[in-house]
């Protein structure tokens, strides 16, 4: 009987380590849980780092829109004034004068008002021909049109073959001929110079839009 009791005691004694195995299982499970829960924390750090880079780039991208907005005000600036060109088209015949005189050069009308005549001290557009009056006519630019007024000249002012009345403002169409008293030496073809704006080089000071994201080794373990 004693042997049997001792045997039972030894058997029951051998069953005691079972709680230790369950506690080790809990410890291993807890360590596994701790290891798994640490992974999202590391990934969240990486995500925050990525968002931080994007926010910095976002600020840089927003700052580049400043010059674009400022360039819109440049488009609102008024266009440069239009210019007209008077090219001599006479035959250069001087027999009606009795001596040779040089042909006048071309004139570019860039001012709003120009006086035409033979006298340098009185006229802006000087035509050194005897048949042209000292102060012969006045040319004006208004609302994209070229206007001419005869200033009571001796030999008259003509648009093509039509003589103008003194003091009456007349419109000169592009492509027509304007004559100041002499059909051989003082006749000009009128043309309108179109405004041609040269292509401007991009401003090197303007920021360029860049969306490059620096390469970073993101550790996931």
Automatic annotation (TrEMBL):
InterPro entries: Cell_Proc_Reg/RNA_Proc, FHA_dom, SMAD_FHA_dom_sf
SMART domains for the chain: FHA
Stretches assigned to the FHA domain: 114-164
Pfam family, one: FHA
Span list, region Disordered: 1-22, 197-221
CDD domains to which the protein is assigned, alphabetical: FHA (cd00060)
Protein name: FHA domain-containing protein
Species per Swiss-Prot/TrEMBL record: Prunus armeniaca
């Amino acid at each position: 009987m004693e042997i049997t009791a001792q045997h039972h005691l030894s058997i029951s004694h051998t069953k005691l380590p079972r709680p230790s195995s369950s506690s080790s299982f809990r410890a291993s499970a807890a360590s596994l849980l701790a290891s798994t829960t640490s992974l999202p924390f590391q990934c969240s750090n990486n995500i925050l780092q990525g968002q931080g880079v994007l926010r910095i780039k976002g600020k840089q991208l927003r700052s580049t829109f400043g010059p674009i907005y400022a360039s819109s005000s440049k488009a609102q600036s008024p266009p440069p004034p239009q210019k007209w060109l008077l090219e001599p088209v006479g035959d250069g015949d001087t027999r009606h004068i009795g001596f040779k005189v040089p042909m006048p050069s071309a004139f570019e009308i860039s001012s709003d008002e120009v006086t035409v005549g033979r006298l340098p001290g009185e006229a802006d557009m000087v035509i050194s021909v005897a048949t042209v009056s000292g102060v012969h006519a006045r040319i004006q630019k208004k609302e994209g049109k070229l206007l001419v007024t005869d200033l009571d000249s001796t030999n008259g002012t003509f648009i093509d073959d039509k003589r103008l009345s003194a003091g009456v403002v007349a419109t000169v169409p592009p492509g027509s001929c304007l004559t100041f008293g002499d059909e051989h030496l003082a006749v000009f073809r009128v043309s309108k110079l179109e405004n041609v704006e040269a292509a401007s080089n991009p401003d090197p000071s303007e920021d360029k839009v860049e969306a490059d994201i620096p390469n970073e080794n993101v550790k996931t373990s």
